[in-house]
Amino acid sequence: MCGIVGLFAKSPQVERDLGLHLSKMLVSMSDRGPDSAGIAIYAKPIAMKTKITVQSQSPEVEFPKLKKFISTKKEVSCSLDTNSSHAVITLDVKQKKLVTELISDAFPNLRILSVGKKMEIYKEVGKPNDVIERFEIDKMKGSHGIGHTRMATESAVTTLGAHPFSTGEDQCLVHNGSLSNHNSLRRELIRKDMTFETENDSEVAASFITYRMNGGQTLKEALESSLVELDGFFTFLVGTENGFGVLRDPIACKPAVLAETSDYVAFGSEYRALTSLPYIERAKIWEPEPATVYFWGH
User: Fold this and answer.
1) Model pTM greater than 0.85?
2) Which of 2, 78, 172, 253 is catalytic?
3) Is CATH 3.60.20.10 the classification given to domain 3-44+127-297?
4) For 71-89, what is each residue's pLDDT tens digit?
5) Mutual orientation of helices 18-27 and 128-135 as an angle, nearest 10°?
6) What gap in Å lies between CA 284 and CA 146, rounded to an integer?
7) Where in the chain is the domain with CATH 3.30.70.3400?
8) Does 2 participate in catalysis according to the annotation?
9) What would the pLDDT profile of 24-66 be if each residue is shown by its tens digit?
């Protein structure tokens, strides 16, 4: 039993308060997942720049070393902004592969959580309120974002095991449910050169969608493919550079609710996740249909 939330901004006011709204929504889902929590925020991109979000178990030691290391690389032009156990490296798009390889080689204990022009992921072990306070997520702005609070069932409680999972640029997934064929599908995806950091079934779902999209499918097509290839029960909320998509399995045994106004589209595992949103009483509110893809994009 996990909790999922998502918010897609249609107005500047909601973009300005995106982190605050998402924070309140996720905190309301705390009792659905006490083990870990995380949020992906899609902020305004910088022309010709991309971002790498990294996490460290020893940030007070590793981040100063990382900053010094980067400064010695004359071929690299980038900045590093630290936020508790996370740091966001902003760099030229053309240097993405170089910097990623440098980090992996020189700092094997750093975890790369996400890469993208817009997306930053913040996740840690702990309850939503603790994670939000730690990273000051309530102060963040953005066009859209998704969040998750986890009750672990099939894998360890770790930072890497927390949601969202990102397996592609500006792509991430949060999941409520359980997949029964994730081990066999993981082996198949590894043979197709996809890599994995955890034993979590949700990472397999994220990787499957990324693999299908890398092969030319749209998010809608990739989610529809998951209805055929993934066994189990699930509610997925998938973030992309332009928006987010929602899918429930054909049985739809996991709760989900959507709300839409002229200012936003909101998703929650339960209606109480939406009650703090502005003018929610005027919103169109409905339960997403089973085996049906919903998507909103800018």
Assistant:
1) yes
2) 2
3) yes
4) 898 888 899 999 999 999 9
5) 160
6) 20
7) 49-117
8) yes
9) 999 999 999 888 999 999 999 999 999 999 999 999 999 999 9
